[in-house]
Write a structure and sequence with these properties.
With 279 residues, this protein is an alpha/beta fold. Helix content is 38%, strand content 11%.
Length: 279
């Protein structure tokens, strides 16, 4: 069984995908159910894996920064190989950072508008807003992201690992360029998943604001898709219906990738999975 290795943020993981727009919940019910394991059976990655008979190994997680996904993949590869594997990677917002905190003895991802979590960050840390003010540079973030994507694309190619790449929430600026172009999403609009969903539901969002995905309706695409039942009205993650649409958007790309891979790999080397959750 070929493996589908998925990386990205909450949209890839499937946070909130248990929410059914036809049977809406109140906010408290949503919050108590949005991170439960049974959400993931509704995620587009599960839908596509089931369709093609793939084993889905997921590294993506809620609130993940891009840097956390690069780190987690390196850790994953200490124990696992990439034989008979297709990589699907949704790149998230650049306005997220990951730092190791001695107080909480763990890594933590955060965005500038979020509150400090004292049990992890400790009482003396300056907090996300001030940390971003001191350490974040948009141009450098774009260049660093481009360098990392360039490295992983070339790495996968050298190992003959088929790969699918797309922007999830916004079209990011990859200063200096990447190794190979991202996969072309089907609709003739901005090439990020959120804009593709808006176009699929009847609106072309050409000049919308940057979406941070921090439980805030901070752009018109989110407001539009919330009204359509594609995003939930609380955290603005895709609903059951939204994940079904994402699967439809990505299905032709995976079909092409999977078919090409199988035609050129009649007898792939079995992969080794010593799986453990990667933090």
């Amino acid at each position: 069984m070929t493996r589908l290795l998925t990386l990205g943020c909450s949209w890839i993981a499937g946070i909130g995908s248990k929410y059914d727009a036809d049977k809406p919940w109140d906010k408290e019910t949503y919050k108590s159910n949005s991170h439960s394991d049974d959400n993931y059976k509704n995620a587009f990655r599960t839908i596509l894996s089931s369709k093609y008979g793939l084993e889905n190994v997921n590294i993506s997680s809620g609130g993940a920064s891009n840097s956390s996904q690069f780190r987690k993949l390196r850790k994953y590869l200490h124990l696992n190989d990439l034989n008979d594997t297709i990589v699907l990677w949704g790149v998230t917002s650049i306005y997220r950072m990951e730092v190791f905190f001695n107080h909480g003895k763990s890594f933590s991802c955060f965005q500038p508008g979020q509150e400090k979590r004292k049990h992890i960050h400790g009482p003396d840390w300056c907090g996300p807003k001030e940390y971003f003010r001191q350490h974040f540079n948009k141009r450098l973030a774009g260049r660093t992201l481009a360098d990392e994507v360039h490295f992983w694309q070339k790495y996968f190619e050298l190992l003959n690992v088929p790969q699918i790449w797309f922007d999830t929430l916004n079209v990011n600026d990859y200063e200096g360029g990447v190794y190979k172009p991202f996969d072309e999403l089907p609709y003739d609009c901005n090439q990020d998943l959120l804009s593709q969903l808006a176009y699929k539901n009847g609106w072309d969002p050409m000049d919308d604001k940057y979406h941070l995905s921090d439980w805030k309706a901070d752009c018109d695409r989110v407001d539009f898709l919330k009204k359509k039942g594609v995003l939930n009205p609380y955290s603005f993650h895709p609903t059951i219906q939204g994940h079904q649409q994402i699967a439809e958007i990505l299905d032709p790309i995976l079909t092409k990738c999977y078919t090409s891979y199988k035609e050129s790999n009649k007898d792939p080397k079995p992969y080794k999975t010593i799986w453990r959750d990667v933090h």
